Amino acid sequence: MHWYMLTLVGKDQPGIVAQVSRALYEGGSNLGETSMVRLGDSFTIMMMVHYGQSGADLAALLRPVTDNLGLAVHLDPIPGVLHSGVPPEVCITVYGADRAGIVAQVTGALAQAGLNITDLSSTVAGSAAQPLYVMQIEGQASQGLAALEQAIAQATRDGIEVHLQSLDTLIG
Amino acid sequence: MAILPILTYPDPRLKQIAVPVSQFDAALAGLLADLEETMEAGPGGVGIAAPQVGHFCRIIVVDVSAKPKVENHGRLRLVNPEILQWEGLAVGREGCMSVPDYTGNVVRAERITVRAQDGTGQAVELTTSGYEARAIQHELDHLDGLLFLDRLVSRHNDLFRRKVYQGRKPAAAC
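ok -> structure tokens follow
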């Protein structure tokens, strides 16, 4: 068995997840961790797929469904590692009037301050006339919280609203 | 004293409802000591419930005193605990020794008043809030066969409002 990272992108419509996962299941593969999310009017899928044959065989197995749904397919062999999740230590929310460079500026400062991002989602909210950029980041603070707080203070001086919250995960 | 093996989901026994304790004897004292030692052995564990080690009686141990800047009552050994009152709601991230490699957001009461007995059968009552209140509620759930997985809420719906207080007064006029 081999692990593959399967990427699928296409115009959103009902039933994509059901049809793709059914084809994979009936073809003898098994799913690991996945991320499936609507971005704009596209639906995007990234999934770890455990499968006994070649990547070409996997793509062929999916072709009836991906052709039918108009999905672009990308497939990479990967070293599949499960049960290696790292619990996030911080949640950082960012928002501001949309302009080019917010993500680069904020994540650049946070990376320098030791942030290792484990999960990030962002969207353009507001209206076409007054777009608002909203971003939610989770990650690990490899240099501690104080370093991140300093980076955030600088971003805030530059006019972006950034809020950090320590995620003290309760293990019971 | 012994470190007991932790049951992990999908062990069906974790879904069992635990029975009240009626004998406050040496066996109970021994189980409490084992629970404490098992909790301390778990990485970062701040609480444990008897069903997690295969004893289906209503006993929990909670100790959040190692966490910096957290209101706490020290080591709590609570037998037959019940929540008398609660107020406020807050979202927080939880994991569980019985559910390795997963954490998720759970809504809990922000402030609770708990009545229980100690290891000798003496009645105890305490009011607590925040992290310690969350830990007690997490462990109390184990006594009723509930895991934090049964209470998961979206990882993304709590943006800007991790704390939701009930009964927040609206502005007087607008």
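The mean pLDDT of chain B is 91.
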